[in-house]
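Quick board copy: two proteins, each given as sequence then tokens.
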Amino acid sequence: MSARSKDYHRELERLQDQIVACRKCTRLIRYCRQVAREKRRMFRQWEYWGRPLPSFGDPEAELLIVGLAPAAHGGNRTGRMFTGDRSGDFLYRALYEAGFASQPVSRSRDDGLRLKNCYITASLRCAPPKNRPRPEELANCQPYLLRELALLRRVRAVLALGKTAFDTYLRTVWRPEVFPPRSQFKFSHGGSFALPDGLPRLFASYHPSQQNTQTGKLTPGMMRSVLEDIRRYFAQCAGARSKAEP
């Protein structure tokens, strides 16, 4: 690893420390702490995280996944993105099968899981009441995502999980002078969008919430298809680079 890469990695770590220490949204901090105190009966022996969540993954990743927010008794309990709830069970199994994760389960921060060529972040870093963030809360978190995008220098594809993540990402990178009309970017599962100005390609999937996975709106096969599309895109990028080399 080059000295410059090490500097980027250290800066990314410092950014995560800033995120964990963030107290911008009084409502969210109060809610996360309340959940951590009251707990759920089956998790009474847990010491809940109860704070904003840092991002998780490979700082040299080509794939950036943007989720919605931590679950009250999932990430807010374990302290890691998509860890300790059924959404995480669904997502990490899919990532494992696609070669982006070292194991198919994610139970705690010290369970040995490693992401490969993949980095996971979120539109909101705190668990919101009823899973409904307010616009001003999303705006408070947006600078953290913008800074991550600058530090994750190898990202070639962004996978937005759900419409909120899709809109958050576009809002973060939007530049009216170079982007086509916003109407050209409509969220749909399996959607794929080439963005201007050298930005990563944007892919979209339904969020792996229980509401979607238990009703069949999002199936393992549907998620597998999106990840296969991303794999094919990486292969195309690698092929194009090879042809461009003298």
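And the next:
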Amino acid sequence: MADTIPLLNAVDLHKTYSVSRRDLEVLRGVDFTLAAGEFAALRGASGAGKSTLLHLLGGLDRPLRGTIEFKGRNLASFSANALAEFRGREIGFIFQSYHLLPEFDALENVCLAARIRRRDAVQTKRLATDLLNRVGLSKRLDHMPAELSGGEQQRVAIARALINSPSIILADEPTGNLDSATGDEILDLLCALRDERDMALLIATHSDAVAQRAQRVIHIEDGVLVAN
């Protein structure tokens, strides 16, 4: 039987940034795969390259060298428009700092990702309302981000990440700004939603609790993946 093509497959990823007139090599030859429906945790010290790897895998940035394939298709072959379409359709991003638009209420923040893809406004509002109900914010739909707690803002961010029914959730320290109890609630929610929707989930984290729940833990150190 032929080998199953992984959902994401990255080979020999390199990424360098220019900082203060010198080159900073962040990734130095990373190989990584993510299967459909898999829950993986990415661990490493601050500056090890976790966020950079997530950005490359999600098409927010391009590697200096190496290849990233989604279902066997090389992202390097995508035009800028095709890459934006890929991100909007297949990837849901969740960030540590939430990145909610302060001038929009919770419902509008969730709707925005679908409206960018020109989905029907009435259907989008209905779906966003359902998602906010699902994450426990049925009474916060018209609240602005400044009126929400950190945990509530992260729940809005999760609903926003789900609005386009992505096949992959990439989460960068999603519990890092939260107290332990709220962080546990967010982790429980992410795990439940992954099970319900059969999404792949990759979380960059320092948290032991996240690592213990993951099916696989990957460690990154000085820009390379290292054995457990």
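Board note added afterward: Helices lie at 50-57, 80-90, 106-116, 121-134, 150-162, 180-197, 208-213.
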